[in-house]
Amino acid sequence: MNRRRQQRVNRILDVAIVGMTSPAWGLLLALTATLSRLTQGKQVFFTHHRAGVNAKLFNLLKFRTMIRNADEYLDENGRPTRERVTTLGRTLRRSGLDELPQFLNVLKGDMSLVGPRPVLPEWVDRVPGQASHPRFSVLPGLTGPAQLAGRNAVKWSERLALDAHWAENPSGLRYLKIVALTPLALLKPTVAPDRNQGEVDDLQHLPGDDNAHAVS
Asked: What's this model's pTM, rounded to 2 decimal places?
């Protein structure tokens, strides 16, 4: 099966799985939103621009996990000057529940259940090949190979290699395997939940690529 046809099959799987599981994730989303409203105030959701297919921007949905005006508490080097992640936010991040609203992104067609995690717009220029990198040829995913490898503790060079392999080999069987194993992956340790990209950014060490440089 060619890649384009397999991607269409994966889209059918997206809609079928999200639709069939909607009573479960819908209830969990409602309960989490209620808890967030009671403990963190009115702003329950967080919307952010991310780069999707062909690096085009879309609005990513998440539960809010930081204090309001969090970016006011960064020094000139972008490091936090105080604790910015809320108590509930830490639990949501560790469990992956902060990403739950992205089921709506999947239904809308901005994302797939499986694919490369969507990156911030400023990261596109830091990816070797930029928008032409294979990771931007498929829908970004709620989960993916990098999540099974260690979530946000995976080095960026390794993550990009995993993303490229997925984009070039979009197997339906592998799609189902990643979906099935993701709950176990959520139990793996991750790096710090606030401004952790410096710990995993090794793009500046990739040889022979003028576009690879450190994240500030």
From this structure: 0.84
